Amino acid sequence: MKGFNGMEPSFKQENVIDKEERYKAFLRQFASLIEGETYKISVLANTCAALKEAFGFFWVGFYLVEDGTLVLGPFQGSVACYRIRKGKGVCGTAWAEKQTIVVPDVELFPGHIACSSLSRSEIVVPLVVNGEVRGVLDIDSDQLNAFEGNDQKYLEEIVRLLAETLYE
Ligand code: SME
To answer: Is the pTM of this model over 0.90?
Structure first.
């Protein structure tokens, strides 16, 4: 398939229980979802929709670096704060440190920015292009300890593919 052209690839995986298998199946379809379209907002929006559909995350979205701050980009979930400064919250910390941050319990993360009181754990993966952070992928769960090593590994791969496809 040459990109996503109005056909309906389903990212639902009702029969797949194992999370690693889900990520592997996701990645097999993801490459064709993001090829052939260069408009960032559209591709990031479809990425959020696909992740939400495949994994049922409570909140999944991107914050993008604009004029020296993180600004809310495409997302799926409830309304969220617009701007996050470098070093602030989980997102701003992932930006400042240029690394993924896994937060098993948001109440234990100093400076966590609560966009929803239902959010209990979180993972933030920076989107890095030529050593520069251009945005972050932020995923929230309404369960404690929702994210582990496999989430980090595969979400970093997904974000790396986005960086390569959209920014390089
Ligand atoms: N919790 C994030 C803010 C964004 S919302 O979760 C959507 C943070 O601490 O950076």
So the answer is: yes
CA 63 to chain CA mean position, Å: 9
**Among protein residues, the one whose CA lies closest to atom 3 of ligand 1:** 113
Tens digits of per-residue pLDDT, 6-40? 556 677 776 667 889 999 999 999 999 999 899 99
**Best residue for ligand 1 mutational test, from 75, 88, 91, 142 (most atoms within 8 Å of Cβ):** 91
Residue 70's CATH number: 3.30.450.40
Ligand 1 midpoint to CA 140 (Å) = 8
pLDDT per position as a tens digit, 26-35? 999 999 999 9
